[in-house]
Amino acid sequence: MPSRLIRATAFFAALAAATPGHAVEVVATVKPIHSLVAEVMAGVGEPALLIGGSASPHTFALRPSDARRLEGAALVVWVGPTLETPLAKPLAALASPDRVLTLTRAAGVAVLPGREGGPWGGHDHDHGQGHGPGGKGDEDEADGHLWLDPANARAIVAAVADRLATADPGNAGRYHANAARAARSLEALDAELARRLAPVTGRPFLVFHDAYQYLERRYGLNAVGAIAVSPERKPGARRIQALRRRVAESGAACVFREPQFDPGLVATVTEGTRARTATLDPLGARIADGPGLYPALMREMAGALADCLAPAG
């Protein structure tokens, strides 16, 4: 009788672990990626968000509670060392690389190199001091804002579903069904954004820092420079003078600030010019976390671009 009881207990424990609704622990680093992972996990569980609010993924401080969360996660989804730089060493220390999904290496994700020189300034090479699990040197020079292309977002949800199905086979069907539904929604969102931005393709503008290359490539937008070399370093007087000339010579219709940084820099650059100003936020710092954040973020940015770049009158 005791042996039967032990076998029955083990059977029901295994059944519970494989039953849909019992999610594995998942951590996503930044808000847009967390939103896409949450979409894939809908109806099963919720991923934890590591870097919330307006914290910069380049410089955030990993707390002991964050380190414990990473150690206990079945899956950590991050962009890579080019973006969440302080995570490179902690993630490399995890016992199994299967517990880390690095999106710069995920199948179907197009990765663009970071821009350097001229209106973009020098690249912040300090980002490249550590490699993630199985690191590649060129990853450190990539542009990490890869979620700003909805085609990449579709590849991300597919990659997340595949990894979750491996980590949690009892819910594999649900993960893949959620990813398929998300991909259809993202395709519709892509078409919507293309229509919204079509009237302003080619119109010149400046951004606060070089975070929008994927958006530009996807929709034919014409960014002509960035104010800050990196979001953590204020530009000097010589660079401000060069940017003021750039605004005047390019006929920039708009200069975009970001809510996390000093708006006075944008006011200084646009003073005495005809350029308008507006706000872009590639992380969605002020949007509620969850599966709805990603489409809200993309629509918010498209609206800001379309409105500020529209011809006067």
Domains (count): 2
> Roughly how many Å is the radius of gyration?
22 Å
Poorly predicted tracts of residues: 1-21, 123-137
Mean pLDDT: 86
How many beta strands in the DSSP annotation? Answer: 8
- Gross morphology is globular
What CATH calls the topology of the largest domain is Rossmann fold
Q: What is the CATH top level name of the largest domain?
A: Alpha Beta
Q: What CATH architecture of the largest domain do you see?
A: 3-Layer(aba) Sandwich
Strand order of the largest sheet: 2-1-3-4
Query: What fraction, in percent, of the residue positions are helical?
Result: 40-55%
Structural class by secondary-structure content: alpha/beta
N-to-C terminal Cα separation, in Å?
85 Å
Q: Main sheet?
A: 4 strands, parallel
The CATH superfamily of the largest domain bears the name Nitrogenase molybdenum iron protein domain
Figure out the total of helices. Answer: 10
